Amino acid sequence: MSTPLYILQSEYWVRINLALEYCIKEVLIDVLHNVHNDTSYTGLPTCPKQLYQIFVQCKQNKKHELNKVLKKEQWEILCPQNGSTNPEDWDITLLIAVLRSVVGLQPAGGWKIKSLQPNDQSIGAFLFLIRNLRNELMHGSINAVSNLQAFKQLRSRMENILLGLKYKNMQMFYDLESCPLDKHVLVISRMVTNLDQEVDLLRNEASDNSNAIKNIEQTNQWIKTYLKQLSSAKADKTDVEDLAKSMNMKADKDEIDGLAKSMDSRLNTKADKDEMDDLAKSMENRMNAKADKDELD
């Protein structure tokens, strides 16, 4: 029985977005802290409390660019009540916003360009590509990853971005192309939440985002259905593994019981042999004694 098309499309979409969630997000955090010591810009500190202080100052400056683009919920992530901000808690949109407005990275020609200039290999250019790719996947229909060819084309675009930004964990990216997805159920569940939040953000904007909202809601429904199947398959796998463990334990017990019986049998046989040896020795002694008596007579 062939796999339904929407299941394949959902899996393609999930695998691409897992690469976004793991690999693209990780490389953006590397850029944020300038782990490669690029001399063209100054990264932000890795200390969560120092980061917090930077964003508090940005928030207090009403003219700062971040105040023009961030929503209340996004500020709460940048400036949490515990006084410590962690980029691991940010999504790609927030990372791009900080890299653009605080770190000051941009493609040649600035962020208002519609397409990159030829041969622009700057860090800002790769950020521009990430933003476009993320919006394309998030706002477009799940049909954008309609088949294996489209899936591989998107992965190729993502691979070029990661290599351009000197991503240190390319093996993870390659593994996500075909690895079992049941280990990523929690992250996929978070994708559903992110899609819901994206719809809320689009509805609060002044521009008409009805098509994007429709696409996101359709994608979300498909991913929820796929997630249920994935969770069900994971549960079935766990049941099988538990059964296998149970069978192995029974096999081990049977083996131990068999060994015990064998040892009992061997011990009983040895006891019988010892008893026969003692009887033979006794009879031999009695016969020798009788022979000696006859000889004396």
Please provide a written account of the structure.
The protein is mainly α and 297 residues long. The protein folds into three domains: 5-182, no CATH class; 183-233; 252-296. The chain is 71% helix and 0% strand. The chain has ten helices and no strands. It has helices at 5-33, 48-60, 66-69, 72-78, 92-103, 123-139, 148-164, 170-175, 185-203, 210-296.
Report the order of strands and helices. Answer: HHHHHHHHHH
The fraction of residues in strands falls at: under 5%
Q: First CA to last CA: what distance?
A: 102 Å
Number of helices: 10
Question: Structural class, judged by helices and strands?
Answer: mainly alpha
Can you tag this structure with a few keywords?
10 helices; 71% helix; globular; mainly alpha; 297 residues; HEPN_DZIP3
Task: Please sum up the structure shown.
It is built from 10 helices and no strands. By secondary structure, the protein is mostly helical.
Helices and strands in order, then pairings?
Elements: H1 5-33, H2 48-60, H3 66-69, H4 72-78, H5 92-103, H6 123-139, H7 148-164, H8 170-175, H9 185-203, H10 210-296
